[in-house]
Design goal:
There is one protein chain. The protein has 420 residues and is of the alpha+beta class. The protein has two domains: 97 residues, Phosphorylase Kinase, domain 1 (2-Layer Sandwich); 299 residues, Aminoglycoside 3'-phosphotransferase, Chain: A, domain 2 (Alpha-Beta Complex). The chain has a five-stranded antiparallel sheet with strand order 1-2-3-5-4, sandwiched between helices. The protein is globular and about 65 Å long. Bound molecules: adenosine-5'-diphosphate and magnesium ion (3 copies). The site of one magnesium ion has 3 residues, from loops.
Length: 420
Amino acid sequence: ASQPLAKAFNEETLKRYIASQPHLHQIFGNDLSDVRVDEIGDGNLNFVFFVTNKQAALAFKQALPYSRMSGGARALTCERLAFETAALREFGRLAPDYIPHIHHFDTEQSLMVMEFLSPHIIMRKGMIDGVEYPTFADHISTYLAKCLYGTSDFALDPSTKREMVAYFARNVELCEITERLIFNEPFMASDSNRWTSPALDETVHAIQNNLALKLRVADLKYKFLTRSEALLHADLHSGSIMLTADETKVIDPEFAVFGPMAFDIGILIGNLLINYYAQEAYATADNDRAAYRFSVLKMIEDIWNGFFQKFCALWHEGRTGGAYQGTVFTEQNGAATAALNSVLDDYLDNLLQDSIGYAATEMIRRTIGRAHVIDVDMIKDDEKRADIEKKILGFAAQILQSPKKYKSITEFLEPAKQDI
Ligand code: ADP
Ligand code: MG
Ligand code: MG
Ligand code: MG
């Protein structure tokens, strides 16, 4: 068992640590006297340091036995960083262009060292500033197709997959947070919830008393708990993505676990839609953000459609995993191929419905649950913010309470277009 650290690294202890690790020492060179350490973390849970000298620049991520925001009050095991590192390595194997390079992992110190991403910035911040990301939809749809397909029974042999499922199933602490914050608390009376009050009181009450809506969320939760389809990032929001106009990197998969593919797709789409609604508040005299808002919807369409195409291509090229072995789908004849295509169509149709469901759940929980997002929270004017939050909740509640099946991502986005 690892000996959890009581304290965060500081400049002195980090320098000493680097000197003690030949591999890291080599990266920074003989002279460590000019090594500078800055804490750059902005997350709730962990410490991230920018460590640089004239020869190198690396990011050091440290998980302490408590969450960063709680200042020591909320205990968490350090093991979460091992799950994060294992997930980054797996995703890096499948989609190397979209994952920072991992240089070092130390269980005892609960420390992971990775490539320092620069000039990449956190996507959420870029979107708030109205920065266009023309390559993002193509990149993230490739990442999603390769990582979700590549860790599923469509690609892996059953024994390999079971071993992986068993390993990540031990990430119980962070899964408990996902379940509680996303599926439980927002849909019941809980002291952890917060929302713009009293403006949203009635809306929140209506959501928490809407049986049809809560049954849908219960179904999505059940699928999250029971469907070990693929290795999920499980926290794939715009704050876990760092990018430039032509590069995209996914970071921070410490919640990683096997679950339904729709979860990752839906969380991402939900966060992009929140940003879409918030754009209204960022309008200035010389930029009404109308074009940007439109580009966010286009981005969501391109993500799903790109994912769909790339996933289909992998299905047709691959067919190596346990889901095919010894089944009718390995037969090379017209009838088997037609059946395969029809199964794939149904599979992707259900994936779209569930992705939409998770997106809506995310939009609600980020508005009335414990963990909000800055896209909306930074809007200082209470009235303006409440107005936007009501639109977000109205859009999401409509989706979750209706038995409607969406024929396309475009159809799903239509009411959002009408809202503004
Ligand atoms: P947490 O788990 O605490 O949320 P993150 O992995 O999200 O930690 O990192 C927190 C912040 O540190 C990020 O929002 C980003 O600004 C910065 N960061 C993380 N990893 C890197 C990296 N490889 N290169 C540059 N900055 C990084
Ligand atoms: Mg983070
Ligand atoms: Mg963060
Ligand atoms: Mg994190």
